[in-house]
Amino acid sequence: MEMQFSLEGLCCPVCAAKIESGIRKLDGVENAVIDFNAQKLILETAGGDASGDDHAREIIARADSIVKQHEPDIIMTRIDTAVAGSPSPAIKTAPDRGKIFDYVRFGLGAILFIIALVFQFTGPIELGLFLAAYLLIGGEVLLRAAKNISRGQVFDENFLMSLATIGAFAIGEYPEGVAVMLFYQIGEAFQDHAVNRSRSSITALMDIRPDYVNLKRGELIVKADPGEAKAGDIMVVKPGERVPLDGIVLEGRSALDTSALTGESLPRDVEAGSAVLSGSINTSGLLVIEVTKIFGESTVSKILNLVQNAGSKKAPVENFITKFARYYTPAVVVMALILAFVPPLLIPGAIFSEWINRALVFLVVSCPCALVISIPLSFFGGIGGASRQGILIKGGNYLDALNNVDTVVFDKTGTLTRGVFTVTQFVPAENYTPEDLLFYAAHAESNSSHPIALSIQRAYGKSVDAQRISGLEEIAGRGIRVLVDGKKILAGNSRLLDAEKIPYPAANPDVDGTIVHLAIEGVYAGCLIISDELKKDSRETIRTLKGRGVKNTVMLTGDTKAAGERIARELEVDRVYTELLPHQKVEQLEILENEKKSAGKLVFVGDGINDAPVLARSDIGIAMGGLGSDAAIEAADMVIMTDEPSKLITAMDIAKRTRSIVNQNIVFALGVKGVILVLGALGIATMWAAVFGDVGVAVIAICNATRALKVKK
User: Fold this and answer.
1) Treating both helix axes as pointing N-terminal to C-terminal, what angle do 123-150 and 174-205 enclose, rounded to 10 degrees?
2) Per-residue pLDDT reduced to its tens digit, 133-164
């Protein structure tokens, strides 16, 4: 059973990692993940309803105890995801440090510090002023460090800053001790502001949850919570309002802005009979809509759930940094102790206070927050930026995996092709023109709702005069016999012509598509070929993938060999496998997986319920075409809301940019800290440089991470 908890007030990434590790060790807990950016705990336990028995309640209580042990101010509350329509809470910022009392206390401490520096007092007055300033500015840090030590939590930033600044006072460096605490607190405030601003920016990207629904109750319009609506209810959406639930338009015409769902700016026209998705914005006319899905099953709910839970699936580099931070800080503390006490004992004339000062520089610069915060934030931003483009990615691990793609396997129909039948070729007999064939075929098929008949009617593009048609007779499994302008017309397959004993040319075995033969007054007039057509960006997508170093492009289809191979030739894919049933697609995918010569990932792009098994089996499964198939979306690791294969390239670009930002932060943070550690050990770097190496680097890395949000179209 999965539970989710909001961790309001979570502001320490190192503590978050410790809480996550502690909860995972509890009996009955199968997995625990803390999404620091979303301030959320996702807890998986064995058994049924995780809150319905004593053992489960005990797990929750012990988890809360672990949270309080590391961060006493955190408020842990259950998110009820089981209730249909229950919204996930908005991401909350850490408690405000800028309360009036804190401002006064901090300001007074800063004033005392400046007075002590400017007037340069000596003796007890100097110590008293600096000590008062130190306690006013850093008292809360000292208090938190003491509380954490009493709970056995020693190696955190509060302890490091307390030890470093108390050490500065011990060796008589009063100004440096106060200055380190002052700039540490200022840096922490900037750091919190940067993180909270990033969280707010990402949350704003997905601000598509409707606040209310206008339900029609008889002659009245009642404003209600979207979670209260049921399938079959009638809702009214006024111009400027967001469509709250999925449904079918009963009355009205309008244009819908679907950019929040698909990333596309062009509005979509809807009228009676059109399907509409929740999260769209009604830009013009009044719409009366029948609800088809409750809020918990609606498009907007699924999108919010995908994005909000994406942080729980961490990229390998995120897991590495979490483990790295666990050992890095204690290692630096040990090195600082060695630096403080070993050289003075071994080097003749060495002064203890000088080496202790160098060790304090080590302590100040050692906090790994720059990495622990900025790297998850980079992936969080990349996922948020992708959602802006209509690409929903279920976790940082899948986003990062797109940087190492070896093989891309596509389904054909609905993925590379439009999945809509089109008249692609006319083959007229002597004395007839393509226009003749289309005219008679359109009139013969005018009363049929078959997809092939509809494609002929679309190709004709004109209204059919019903008065010119008579004697319509549908012949099951063969075609249609009809009189058009008094002429006997036959439209259908070869079996119809055989039954009427009308000679016709032998069909080309390589013809791709369905053939509709026509005969006029007992004489063969020619045929139309009906085929699926390529999406406009399919060819460019394949070409770009090859240019990006993808070694193998493959197409799998249940269509005929002729149809599949024609599309494969047009697209220039490396391999094509045709006439496959769903289970055969899985088998073929496993063969392709075994054939891979590199450690790269295998990506499958498909749509529809038939593709769900293949989506689940691939390294990265991508569901194409929005939220058409619930099974495909459930099985997929990514969802492309539009019907554009080229969005795969966009996703790969976002993945590349996100990894680049992550690498920049790793190199920058470790590089600056490494230089300051070396210079500190040599006695060159001061406490001021150490403060920059801690909070300054963290703020810069966080600001750099927010660039992942900005995705160019």
Assistant:
1) 40
2) 999 998 888 888 888 788 776 666 777 778 87
